Amino acid sequence: MMTTTIADHRSKDLPMSRIRQDIGRVGETALLLLVIAFIMLPIYWLAMTSFKTPEKAYTTEIIFPPTLKNYEIIFSDGSVVVNEGTDRERGEVGRNMAPNVVNSVVVSGATVLIAIPLATIAAYAFSRYNFFGNRALLIWILTTQFIPAIVVAIPFFTLFRTVQFFGEPLLGTRWGLIIVNMSIVLPYAIWMIKGFVDALPGEIEQAAYVDGANDFQVLFFVSLPLIRPGILVASVFAFIMSWNEFLFALIIGREMRTMQVALMTTSGMRGVLWEQMAAAGMVVMVPIFFLALFIRKNVVEGLTMGAVK
Amino acid sequence: MRKKRWVPWVLVGPALIVVFATTIYPLLAAFYYSFQKYDLRKPPQFAVQLASEAGDPLISVDWSLLSLNNYARAFSDARFINSLNVTFWFTVISVVLSVVIGLLIAVVVQKSGLLQTLTKILLIFPFAVSPALKGYSWRYMLHEEYGIYDLLIDVLIVKPINLVIELINILPFVDITPVSESIVWLADKFWALFMLAMSETWGWAPLIALMFVGALGSIDTQIFEAARIDGANNWQIFWRVTLPLLRPVILIVTMLKTIFSLKMFDQVVTMTGGGPVRATQTINYYIHQVGFVRNLDIGYASALSYILVVILSVFAVLYVSKVLNRN
User: Fold this and answer.
1) Binary contact (B12, A125; C-beta < 8 A)
2) For burial by CB atoms within 10 Å, which of A233, B154, B270, B312 has the most?
3) Mean pLDDT across chain B, nearest whole number?
4) Chain B residues with CB inside 8 Å of A29's CB?
5) Chain B: nearest CA to A99, how far in angstroms?
């Protein structure tokens, strides 16, 4: 009875609904293309500008002879002149960003290498042991993401001015930057890895305990190998966070510029040198694109600390 | 069960020491500084002094050096009040745009299909672009002479509007002024703030869309089928089915985005520099100016950042309790 009514209803206005469906499909495709344009235009435009000559960078032309000169300039030691003659007097010679890339890689890499092992064992304990304060500490870790970075930066700025490390103050060093980066990276890493441990069934561990393994043997030989993919995801996430970090890099890193801060150095007499900024921007964002694609499925859960499922 | 009681402390200990050292220590230190006269250009006079000579008491405290001056100053500081205003409007605009556009994107990409899947993959890209770079690229694209956004806004929005205005102006006794085609976006107080919020929206809306897509994915699709069989059209399904189901997620996402917007800093530096005339100076940006750029007034900067902490903690408490209730 029910099925016949639906069938009747459909057959009656079949041509009309088909046209409507077609319109709907075209509309959907148009909307999707609009979304793609919205997302990709700034990225595409930056990528294109990085291959433009200075003259073309100050136009909206999309057809131009591509050049790699901008990349050459941002990685040269000042010997490459942007525009022979005139611009040299304006001081628009090459600037070497290789040290800034090294700073970014070392700071982000070291942050990950220190934060992830600490986060892993802590996350395991939070997930598997019922100890006094477990829940309270987890809530604190969840809350730390709301502490504005500037509150962390101010006391560490004054502290690092005086605290010596290998004979020099920590302010303006990679170590200083790595220490303050912990404040944003570690809580996220603990929370993320805890999610992976929580998802692991406890029976395997129980079996290992029955076989006579102690707590540490269970952790390092049974559980850790099983959550290795989760540790990798958390590492990538932590790397992206510290790579894109700006406020600490500005206040604590100072002259030890990471790439984020070095972006600001691509300026000369004509303001920001857009073609060079674009090339530096490509160096900043393209590696992160690959990393972000790799952890695509976990970004939302990481960023919201599992609040949105 | 052989689990030993001391084991978890050994495991969480190292991480806790680092977390406390990098969060509790600065919170306490900044709190202490906020009651002090502490300007890096002058020799500090701390209320709490460690013994300098033998015979002195180990710690001496001079309570008279602690005062509420920094807080009192904040509420008569026109620039700080301005930054509260700027942050409020920036937060309102960027949160509303991010959540609404995020919702629209989610609805568009939600269905299965090749183009939909491709778009879903692309949604992650704006997240990967660092905020500092985002600010620079938007500033470049909004430039009144060679910016692609400026060109697109002129061709797709301003010109059609002016065409309509011209047509209306043919009528007698009607004279509407056409919209200016030469707005310098980042030199106009309102548009600079709006565009700053747009750049933030560009980064967040796709991410928020991903959150909604995830939430929609966990909803049983039978519910949509059922609504369709009952004769509901797409519009009705969106308002009567999708939106009510997403309500808890929308609430959480809105709170999360509000918290991030209140902390806005990076793009202000690279996109507008706080200008024009302080129209985009957010709280965070102003604190940075007070503490590290224009003055080196650590005491005052600490007090201002504590006001920011108090504002944020209201949302943080709401958010954390909401999240804990869900788990």
Assistant:
1) yes
2) B270
3) 87
4) 115
5) 19
DSSP reduced 3-state for A256: coil
The model's pTM is 0.89
Domain count, chain A: 2
Orientation of helix B78-109 relative to helix B114-122, angle to 10°: 160
Question: Which residue of chain B has the CA closest to A38?
Answer: B202
pLDDT, tens digit (0-9, with 9 covering 90-100), for B168-188? 888 888 778 888 777 888 888
Q: Are residues A45 and A115 in the same domain?
A: no
Clarify whether residues A182 and A241 are in a common domain. Answer: yes
What is the CB neighbour count within 10 angstroms for residue A254? 17
CA distance A52 to chain B (A): 13
Per residue in A139-190, pLDDT (tens digit) is: 898 888 889 999 999 999 989 888 887 778 888 889 999 999 999 999 999 9
List chain A residues with CB under 8 Å of B12: 121-122, 125-126, 131, 137
| B123 CB burial (10 A radius; 0-12, 13-18, 19+) | buried
What is the pLDDT at residue A91? 45
Note down the domain range covering A159: 98-265
The confidence band for A245, taking pLDDT boundaries of 50, 70 and 90, is very high
In this model, does residue A4 exceed pLDDT 50? no
Q: How far apart are the C-alpha atoms of B28 and B31, rounded to whole Å?
A: 5
Query: Within chain B, what is the greatest distance between any pair of CA atoms?
Result: 94
Shared domain check, A115 and A179: yes
Is B15's CB within 8 Å of A119's CB? yes
Sort out which chain A residues have CB atoms less than 8 A from B292's CB and list them: 157, 251
Contact A293, B242 (CB under 8 A): no
- Judgement on whether residues A185 and A125 belong to the same structural domain of the protein: yes
SS (H, E, C) A210-221: HCCCCHHHHHHH
Cβ-Cβ contacts under 8 Å, A38 against chain B? 202
| CB–CB contact B4 A182 (8 Å) | no
Alpha helices by DSSP H, listed for chain B, are: 7-33, 69-74, 78-109, 114-122, 125-128, 131-141, 148-153, 159-169, 189-217, 222-229, 234-237, 243-262, 266-267, 283-288, 298-326
The ipTM of this complex is 0.89
